[in-house]
Amino acid sequence: MTITHFIPIMTFMLCMSGLAMCRKHLISSLLCIEGMMLALFTSLATISQTLNHTTTTTQPVVLLAIAACGAGTGLALLVATTRTHASSHIKTLNLLKC
């Protein structure tokens, strides 16, 4: 395994452990998910450069567009929950109380 394959895998695992351990605020969870998406983007870009196929060159761009849409949706949810619950703590969010 080369260093170009090792770094995105370790970044993804670090963000996954950050998401599992530090779940106090919603913004930290969103940042960990965004880091995971960026690690997937770099690994897909590295793989598409290595394979030299024309079908794999658009996959990283599509993933980056989906990640941007997910980040926008996550920030909209953060603003909505902060306005309704007056904090971004995950423990105060209850899906059964609407």
From TrEMBL:
The chain crosses the membrane at residues 29-49, 61-81. It is a multi-pass membrane protein. Keywords: Electron transport, Membrane, Mitochondrion, Mitochondrion inner membrane, NAD, Respiratory chain, Signal, Translocase, Transmembrane, Transmembrane helix, Transport, Ubiquinone. Its EC number is 7.1.1.2. It is an enzyme of class 7 (translocase). GO terms for biological process: ATP synthesis coupled electron transport. Pfam families: Oxidored_q2. One of its GO terms (molecular function) is NADH dehydrogenase (ubiquinone) activity. It catalyses: a ubiquinone + NADH + 5 H(+)(in) = a ubiquinol + NAD(+) + 4 H(+)(out). Coiled coil: none annotated. Residues 1-22 form the signal peptide. InterPro entries: NADH_UbQ_OxRdtase_chain4L/K, NUOK/Mnh_C1-like. Belongs to the complex I subunit 4L family. Core subunit of the mitochondrial membrane respiratory chain NADH dehydrogenase (Complex I) which catalyzes electron transfer from NADH through the respiratory chain, using ubiquinone as an electron acceptor. Part of the enzyme membrane arm which is embedded in the lipid bilayer and involved in proton translocation. PANTHER family: NADH-UBIQUINONE OXIDOREDUCTASE CHAIN 4L, NADH-UBIQUINONE OXIDOREDUCTASE SUBUNIT ND4L. This is NADH-ubiquinone oxidoreductase chain 4L.
